[in-house]
Amino acid sequence: MSNSYHILKNVVILVLCFAIIPITTAQKPEFPERMPIVERPFSDDPDKFTFAIIGDKTGGGLDKWPVFDRAIDEINILKPDFAIMVGDLIQGDTTNLKQLAAEWKEFWEHQSDLIVPFLPLPGNHDITNRVMYDYWEKHIGRTYSAFTYKNCLFLLLNTEEWHTNSGEWTNWFGEEQIEYVKSQLTQHADVRHTFVLLHRPLWLQKHSGWEEIETALGERAYTVFAGHYHRLTLHTRNDRRYFVLGATGGGFTPQAVREIGAYDHYSLVTVDNKDVNVAIIEPGNIHPADLATAAFKDKVSNLLKFKQNFNLNKYESSSNGSLEVTLENTLKKPLKVEIVFDPNENWQISPNQLSFEAKPGQTTKTTVTLSVPSDTYLPFPIYKYSALYGGEQLLSGRQLLHPIAREHMRVLKNWMLLGPFDLGIKKIPANTNNVPQSFLEISIPELNLEKTYQGKSEELAWQEHNSEIERIKLDKIFGNAEMAYGFGISYIKSPDARRVFAQIGWGGNLGKIYLNGVEIPGAAIPGKHLYSWWAHFELPLKEGWNTLTILSGDYNGWWDYRMEVADPTKVLEFSAKPTNKD
Which residue in 53, 152, 172, 380 has the fewest CB atoms around it within 10 Å? Predict the structure, then answer.
C-alpha cells in the first residue's frame, strides 16, 4: 500500500480525534446492567443520528480480516453515533476454553480500531453450545438487551437463547426473553421508531417464537435487521422492512450481480425525525437499500424449470424418459445459461451439455433424453449449472437430478424413539469427518416397551412419536442433548420381497440405518460428517413387516432427520406399532 495512503489515513484519524473532543459531555443512553458495549462518547445532536450495522465475520472468511479492518476504517470516517454487530464475531463451535479465549482476543484486537461505541449481539458461532454461552455471559455481558436513544427503541435480541432452557425446547428466544421484549415495548410505546436486531432471521421459520414478538410490535413504526445467511436480502412484512444483512468479512461465495446480495458490506442507518434511511455500503461502493430484494431473488429462483417425463420401471431391464429444461427470462438483462451433466457409468444422458440464451421477456426450451439400467440406477446423476446476467455471474452450483417424482415418496412420520444416551466423548473431534469409535461400537436394541434403559441423565423407555411435520425433530424430543445419540424404529409392510428406493435427510453429525437388523450401505458414508446431507439407497424388503432402525448422534444437540420411501403404487404400509407384526 502506498505511503500517501498511510499519510492520508493518519491525517483522517488525527482530524477525527480532534473532532470527537467537543462531544465528551454528551448524554448517553441508559443501558441495562451488564449491557455488552465498548463505550466511547455519544453524539449530542437531539434531532438526527446515524448508526452502523456490521455483518457476520465468521462462518468461513478466516483470511478476510483485511475486509473487516477496512470496514472499521470507513465507519470511523463516516463517524456514526454508534455501531452494532449482528452476531458471529468469532469462528466458535468449540468447547475448548483456551481456543475460545484466543478467538475472542483476536476479534477484540481488530475491533479496537473503532472510535465509536460498539454493541455486539451473539450469533450461533459465538454461543454454539452452553460452554460458549457461559463464556459470553461471564466475559461480555447480557445475551439480549434493550435501550432507547433519541426517542428510538433498540431491541438487541439473542436467537440462541434456547441454550438456557434446561433441556426443554420452547423456541429460539426462550420465554423469558420474549416477556422481556413485550415489557420493553409496553414501557416504550410512544417512541418514534423501534429497531429490532437479531442474528438469525427467524421470521423465515415457523414456530421460532418470532410470531409473538411480531404480534407485540403491532402497528408501531419499526425496522428489523438480521444476519446469519451472509447474503443481503430485503423482505417486506406488515409494510415494514426486514433486512437480512450480508457478511462483513465472513465466508460466502461471491457473485458479481449485486442484486444477489453476495458481497461484503456494512450498513449505515440515518434517523431524521420520522424518516429512516438505510445505505448498504460495500467498501468503496454505497448501494440503495432496495438493491437486493426478495422479489428479484424469487424471479431468479424461477428462471430455470425442469419437467421430468421419467418413471423408474423395475419390471424392465432399462428405464427411459426425458427431461425438459425451460429458461424463462423475467429479468431486465440478457441471460446466458450453461448446464453440464457429470459423467455417470449407469446413466446415459443426451445431450450432456446445454448452452442457451434468453433476452428479457424471452423463453427458450430444450429436451434431454435419459436412460438407465433399472437395477443399477444409483448414484443419481449430478449436473453443474451457471448463469450470466448481463455478462456478470448470477448463479452457479451443482444439483442432483432426482428422477423419482415427489408425489411417489412417502415420508415416515410415525416412530418409536429411545434416547438420549451419552455418546461417550467429552469434546467435538478436531476433524468432524472422523466418526468417534464409541459411536461405531453402539449396538441396536430391540423394541421392548417393558424395559427401561439408563440414558444420558435419567432412566429412559421407548416413546411413540407421531410427527405433524416431515422432519423428526430429535432436538425437541431429546431436549437439545449434546454429545448424545438415540434410536428410532418404524415398520414397513410389503406384499412381497422387493427392493425399494429410499432416502434420508440427515440433520445431525452421525448416523446409521438398519433394516431387519442389517446395516444398509450407502445410508451413511463412514468417516463423513452427515450434517444437512441427503443419502440415497435401496431397502431390500422381505414379504410382511420389516423393521427399520435409525441410529443418530449429534454433538451440539440440534439434530433431526427426514426419512422417505418410494411407494408409487401405494402398496406399502407404514406403522410405528404394527399389529400382527409376525
Answer: 380
Interatomic CA distance for residues 189 and 543, integer angstroms: 66
Place of cell 447480557: 142
CA distances from 346 to 317, 319, 323, 349, 353 (A): 12, 11, 17, 10, 17
Task: Please compute Rg for the chain using Cα positions.
Answer: 27
H helices then E strands: how many in the chain?
9, 33
C-alpha closest to that of 561 among 479, 506, 523: 506
Give pTM, 2 decimals: 0.69
Gap between the Cα atoms of 251 and 373, Å rounded: 41
| Cα atoms in the 13 Å half-sphere on the side-chain side of 464 | 8
| C-alpha cell read off for 493 | 409392510
User: What percent of the chain is helix, strand and coil (3-state, nearest 5)?
Assistant: 20, 35, 45
The stretch 443-455 carries a mean pLDDT of 93
State how far the Cα of 41 lies from the Cα of 18, in Å rounded to an integer.
13
Secondary structure string (H, E, C) spanning 408-436: HEEECCEEEEEEEEECCCCCCCCCCCCCC
Residue 519's closest CA among 497, 476, 548, 552? Answer: 548
Number of other residues whose CB lies within 10 A of the CB of residue 333 = 15
Q: Output phi, psi for 15, to 5 deg.
A: -60, -40
Phi/psi class of residue 204: alpha, beta or left (left: φ > 0; alpha: ψ in -120 to 50)? alpha
Burial class for 317, CB neighbours closer than 10 Å (0-12, 13-18, 19+): exposed
SS (H, E, C) 74-125: HHHHHCCCEEEECCCCCCCCCCCHHHHHHHHHHHHHHHCCCCCCEEECCCCC
Nearest CA to 419 out of 364, 471, 460, 449 is that of: 460
CA distances from 336 to 141, 197, 297, 340 (A): 51, 38, 17, 14
- Its sign, for the CA torsion 142, 144, 146, 147, is positive
CA distance 182 to 222: 14
The string of pLDDT tens digits covering residues 296-326 is 999 999 999 999 898 888 788 999 999 999 9
pLDDT higher than threshold 80 for residue 158: yes
**Residues 6 or more apart whose Cβ sits within 8 Å of residue 452:** 459, 460, 461
What is the bridge-based pairing of β-strands 353-358 and 118-120?
A: unpaired
User: Could you tell me whether strands 484-494 and 304-310 are parallel, antiparallel, or unpaired per DSSP bridges?
Assistant: unpaired
Which helix (H) or strand (E) element contains residue 575? strand 573-575
**Cα separation, 251 vs 328, whole angstroms:** 31
Least confident of 61-75, 221-235, 299-313, 568-582: 568-582
Q: Given this model, what pLDDT does residue 165 score?
A: 62
352 neighbors 340 (Cβ within 8 angstroms): yes
Q: Are strands 353-358 and 498-507 parallel, antiparallel or unpaired?
A: unpaired
